# Entry
Amino acid sequence: MSDPRMVSIIISSYSYGRFLTEAIDSALNQTYPHTEVIVVDDGSTDNSREIIAGYGTRIIPVLKGNGGQASAFNAGFRISRGKVICFLDSDDALLPTAVEKAIDLFLVADVVKVHWPLWTVDEHGRKKGDVVPHQVLSEGDLREVVMRGGPCSYVWPPTSGNAWARRLLERIFPVPEVEYRVCPDLYLSALAPIFGPMKRISEPQGFWRIHGGNHSWREPFDERLKLVLRRWDHCARTLSDYCRQMGVYVNPELWKADSWFHQIHQATQEIAALIPLGDAFVLVDDDSWVTDEVVGARRRIPFLERDGQYWGRPSDDITAIRELERLRRSGANFIVFGWTSFWWLDYYSDFHRHLRSEFRCVLRNDRLVVFDLRP
# Structure
């Protein structure tokens, strides 16, 4: 039975023993007193279960076989008592004030979700200086926004930046376990707005860790994109079904036109059609596509680039031209502007004029502008 004062923090973990202590401690150290901490171990093969056992009765352990993140969410939610639920990834951590700040906002009538940005940190917990998401989080009654634009049509943070009203989760749980072995936050965040308004906390209330072993980033980019598209399509169908139950009829096919992931999918297909296998191309995307070094068997070079990594925007047109020429000499045969960086073509006007005068534009549409850099 749920407790009207209680907040449940459910930590889902799979073989993240090296980060797990920090996650559990951050949940136990909340300034809000009525908090239970549930740790779901999803069949870890490292020392995670020994760490969990070391906390004794301070936490509620759930030890299960490996079934994926949605399976861990479902197992933790089944035994939780909180009127408000937080799902915390075991490689992340919360600030002590996260629950206290969130619970006050749930006092507003009908709020189904409170969310906040997260500081990004490296493997050792050092701040990288930015937050996720980069945009301002959405707030208010977003039902029309989601019905018009579909999944991913508003701004929300990763899993550890959300608190959920139990009455919402009781309507949409269990999370489908086959479809959401990873990223069940897509399912929750896409459906939440049709059940009520949401509130945001402007200041970061936790830490989102970027490290080489992130489970959701292990597959190559092309495979990750296929899985994301599959989850998006499932989520769109589910959202459409709930809308119809409410007497609102939507067309999921129309949502695809504005879908970030479908635009990237189309863009990568167009790149593959233009750029020969094995060639190198410069990608101007402000590092927003989150691609790998190789995309569709073609080497992707970020712009600006230092040691193969995105370095940031050029300080001026001269820098941009000089860097482009350096990359041409090192073997880059094309430069591709993604739609997220079309503003470059106006802001770096001399750079754009240089491209138009020296090279052939081979594609220009709503997603891409591509110049052939070959002689």
Q: What stands out?
A: Residues 123 and 348 are 35 Å apart (CA to CA).
